[in-house]
Amino acid sequence: MGTLDWIVVVGYFFVMVGIGLWSRGRVHNIADFFTAGGKMPWWLSGISHHMSGYSAVMFVAFASEAYRLGLTVYVWWSLTIGIGVGIGAFLFAPRWNRLRAKHDVKSPLEYLAKRYNVPTQQVMAYAGALLKVVDIAAKWAAVSILLRGFAGVPITWGIIIIGLVTMIYSVLGGLWADALTDFGQFIIQAAAGFAMLFAVAGTLGWDFPVTIWDKLPDSHSDPLAGPYTSTFLMALFLIKTLEYNGGMWNLAQRYMAAPSGFAAKRSALLSSALWLVWPLVLFLPMWAAPLIVPGLQGAQAENAYIEMGKEMLPAGMIGLVLAGFFSHTMAMVSSDANVIAAVINRDMLPHLWKKVKTFSADNQLKLARITTFTFIGVSMIIAIASGGQGFVLKVVVDLVAATMGPIAIPLMLGLLPWFRKVGSTAAIASVVGGLGMWAFLYIEQMNKAAWVTKGVLVSWPLLLSLVLYLSIGFLKKEPSTERDVLLDSLNSDEPEPARVKA
Which residue ranges traverse the bilayer (predicted)? Predict the structure, then answer.
């Protein structure tokens, strides 16, 4: 990297910190900190939802898979998300928003205490929080690998530098800072993505999206290749539909921050469209990479995008592309930190430390900032301890994708009126059973059991969790008038009619 590249990167960091400082003035209480007070425009909510859904993992782990296997990574990843979010625009997005508007919910898990009971809420809170801190550690590792590849910065220092910048604006500005930096990062990402696309087109010709497939191995044009089977695809489609419509808690926040349920639906449709189209711009250079930087084997394939950038981009553009990588990770991490702080402050701490319930508004806001700071710090420590290389894809697919289903099923299906008689027994059994199945399969995989493929590791925990939720819920119905009132209130934006006492 040259001087101009470093100027671009450093300037980007200063802009992110500046947004955090500006956003601080918009945050007056925890409602502003966690849900933007329900005042976020639908288009900003939609862009923020999209940006918060992926990170530099795309340019490390997924770039590696695109380099090795071709088209399949778009099919099983972004295509499933785009379709799933489109479905969720009608099923889930408006309901998340109405939880905030009608029930003053500030955390995605806050409604679970009323929907099921407090023990169910606590099981899901602890399981999800532990999963998220490891997931974010993988994001730090991914972006530090990119920084090392482009600029020679050691992984540890890369994590520290990027983590501190993210920590500053997240702690100061809450969800407003997250969304505004998401928008700025979306612009930077667009410039960086098109810069790489145009550079590849200048080398291979503008018709390269059509012509490269004849020069690549035949399997590179297959929708499913390598370990990614139809079973894996179907399981991941269900997982991503649940995950990206609120099972990944930070994405539920984007819907909650919109002004109304109708606005939340528009946000989801915008995000769905972006998921279907924009990853194609980013993946096309990755698919062409074997023709430009051939011969990368094994873990070296994680450096495919780095090697292309160093080979093809002029001074200044490398810095812009690297800033685009940062933008992905910082968008996801800051939003995750915000929602984890919400879950800890609203759902976990009040049951561990009763005094929290008596805190003043100012002290609640201070606690939210302390929690955000702590979560980011712990995830950075785990990332540094991991060493980076090889850690990313394993966490993202083998851990996060495989365990997200069991955690998301009771949370997401609990929003829908069709499952109103499913109670806490089914919910807890679903989470514990699904995670238990994952633990068993993961141990078997570590012991080199050939039958534990990626499809098995991802699909079996999800399937068991779903079967337990539906079968126990059907056999042991737990109807509740309070639950009926809650679910019925989520059907429309209209205020509930006043209930006249007899």
Answer: 6-22, 42-62, 74-93, 123-143, 155-177, 186-206, 226-246, 267-288, 317-344, 365-385, 391-413, 425-443, 455-475
Q: Please give the Cα distance from 302 to 65 (Å, whole number).
A: 8
Single-letter residue type at 359: F
Task: Map tokens 């269900």 to a residue.
Answer: 238
Calculate mean pLDDT across residues 260-268: 95
Q: What is the pLDDT of residue 1?
A: 63
In terms of pLDDT, which residue wins out, 266 or 289?
266
SS (H, E, C) 129-173: HHHHHHHHHHHHHHHHHHHHHHHCCCHHHHHHHHHHHHHHHHHHH
* Least confident among 8-17, 127-136, 386-395, 481-490: 386-395
Give which of 69, 88, 45, 492 is closest to 287, Cα–Cα. 69
- Within 10 angstroms of residue 19's Cβ, the number of other Cβ atoms is 23
More confident residue, 4 or 443: 443
N-term to C-term CA, the chain: 75
CA dihedral 141, 145, 146, 147 (to 10 degrees): 100
Burial of 381 (0-12, 13-18, 19+ CB in 10 A): middle
Structural contact between residues 289 and 300, judged by C-beta atoms closer than 8 angstroms: no
CA pair distance 123, 139, nearest whole angstrom: 25
Q: Residue 102 is encoded by which pair of tokens?
A: 């009608």
Handedness of CA 360, 349, 34, 425 (dihedral sign): negative
Alpha-carbon distances of 226 from 72, 257, 402, 454, rounded to whole Å: 9, 40, 18, 10
What is the CB neighbour count within 10 angstroms for residue 466? Answer: 18
What six digits make up the tokens of 34? 């966690």
Measured over the CA atoms of residue 348, residue 353, residue 357 and residue 363, the dihedral's sign is: negative
CA-CA distance, 263 to 432, in Å (whole number)?
35
Contact between residue 142 and residue 60 where contact means Cβ atoms under 8 Å apart: yes
Q: What angle do CA 330, 331, 337 make, to 5 degrees?
A: 80
Which segment of 126-130, 418-422, 463-467, 478-482 scores lowest on mean pLDDT?
A: 126-130
How far is it, in rounded angstroms, from Cα 457 to Cα 54?
22
Candidates 56, 145, 101, 131; CA nearest to 327 is 56
Contacts of 149 (CB under 8 A, 6+ apart): 303, 306, 307, 310
> What's the CA angle centered on 412, arms 407 and 418, to 5 degrees?
130
